[in-house]
Amino acid sequence: MSRTTLRPTTALRRLMELLTTDASAEEYTAVAARARADGIDDSDVEEIDRAVSAALGVRKVLRRQRRREAELTALFDTASDLAALRDLDAVLHSIVRRARTLLGTDTAYLTLVDEAAQDTFMRVTDGSVSVAFQELRLKLGEGLGGLVAQTMRPYASPDYRTDERFQHTETIDHGVLDEGLVAILGVPLQLGSGPAGNRSVIGVLFAADRGPRSFSPDEVALLGSLAAHAAIAIDTARALDDAQAAAAELTEANTVIQDHATSMQRAAEAHDRLTDLVLRGSEVSEVAAAVAEFLGGRLTIFDPRGDVLARAGGAKGSRAPGPESLAEAVARARAEGRSVRHGDHWYCAVLAGQELLGSLAFHGRPDLDGPDRRLFERTGTITALLLLLRRTVAETENRVRGELLTDLLDGAGRDPALFTERGHRLGVDLTRPHLMLVAECDTDAEGRLTAGAQQYLFGREGLCCEYEQHAVMLVPDDGTEPGRAARAAAEHLSQGLGEPVSVVAAGPCEGPAALPGFYVEARRCLSAMRVLGLTGDGACAADLGFLGVLLGKEQDTGGFVERILGPVLEWDERRGTELVRTLQAYFAVNGSHIRAKDLLHVHVNTVVQRIERIGALLGRDWETPERALEIQLALRIHLVSQSGRGRTGG
Questions:
Q1: DSSP string spanning 394-419?
Q2: Alpha-carbon separation of residue 545 from 90, 487, 490, 617, 637 (angstroms)
Q3: Cys-Cys link to 567, which of 82, 234, 368, 617 (CB 3.0-4.6 A)?
Q4: Is 167 buried (19+), middle (13-18) or exposed (0-12) by CB count in 10 A?
Q5: Of 396, 398, 394, 334, which is closest to residue 360 (Cα–Cα)?
Q6: What 3 state SS string does 271-299 have?
């Protein structure tokens, strides 16, 4: 098959076709070779050679333009990414990936400067397979990247491993070798413009091959453009972070300001409310209710001993602080001069100078802060003021009441109606039955006993005074057994003074005229308590046995006999036995069973059985000297009373 001879016009047309298909350089030179092979004129061959050279020049320009177009497109896309910056990592990965694609390298990566450590670290990689390489850190001046960061100039190496321009280290060389890199190009990520003094390097962008390669100025410029975009992205992200942080700080500051304004407004309202309560002379319970409402928790006000004066707010089941926790926390609050947190409660001491008037405990706000904490502490001051006012009023009232009771004790021969009228003016009904409590303490040299007695009666209807170095209390009879009332008072006063206090209850007594006599009875019973070693206890005449019968104003002999012999008397009455007669005979013969059986005209075993029954009814200690004396006295009184009734009946 014959081949058409290649003419110049045909060759030109072929070259035009190759330009439209982006053919290889070999295909262009093949056109000239064919013309020579076809044996055309030398002049035509020269013309075709010039056409091939021109076509190759055009091809080179077209390829450069297409490459430039691709670079511009990549830069435009990068700029678009920056304009819509949402995720810095995504933008940096995109830049590194485009650098690798446009430069046609095996890998590309980006490092950032760590100002604190004065080195650079890997931030993003593309095409990397070595973990050791991805974890490299380069100090400023070390390796190619360290030198770029230090000098703010791009550097390229066709074979980094043999390039002596750079400071090689074992760590860097190991990472580069592990990644298999040979040719490396690095350009700085710079911020600022103008002289070097106004610029700073924040990182380095790299492109690298795993074989020898020389990077052209165009490639260096392209990588520099991408590095500039990366620097802008990082700077923009940092600016956004700073702006967001600033916005967050402003929001937080605004919240704090609003909270502070709200707290100050609440504090002002609370101050006005507390001031109004003080001016109106309100009770501490009203203060507790107001503060508990303002603070949103449970507030408890205690007296110096830890007894509750008032409680308000919070759940009814809220756990109150124990005595030990309260004492420890109040001691801390006094030492520090402000409120303290102990466990899940806040505490504040209520002070008048150095005197402890009470304490506050608040539960429900573990974060009691700023204005609210100051409000809690101000409540302590308000409470102290109210307690002082109340104490002043109470002292004045106690003085007037004490004068009335003193006059009652001195009032033999005075008109009872006048005393009754004075009592009515003080809210005391002297026509009602009353108990008289008389207390004494051996070490009361400063009147503390009377003050303690007045505090004991606080909030209760009654009178109190100091009389003949004793504290005398007159309280309405509410049905409480006198001995029990005396013991309760003795326990309270002893605990308050820290010293043993003896208390005797006399009464109930009716009418002002009977009071002096009951006081004398109580004094005699106090003397008997000292003799019996009952100091620090409480009692009434009935509790002192036969001494009480002898000392008691009413001399309740029947009650004494019933208390001592009641079980034996009841046994005889129900069963028709003669235990009382046997007891009388037993004592008459000094406790001899044999001699007693002669008096009773019964068998000795009968006497033994009766004595055992008496012991079971009266208790095992019935034959002790003290009990035996009481039993014999009660037996005598019983026999005398029985004889008297017999004579009356006859």
A1: HHHHHHHHHHHHHHHHT-TTS-HHHH
A2: 101, 16, 20, 18, 13
A3: 617
A4: middle
A5: 334
A6: HHHHHHHHHCCCCHHHHHHHHHHHHCCEE
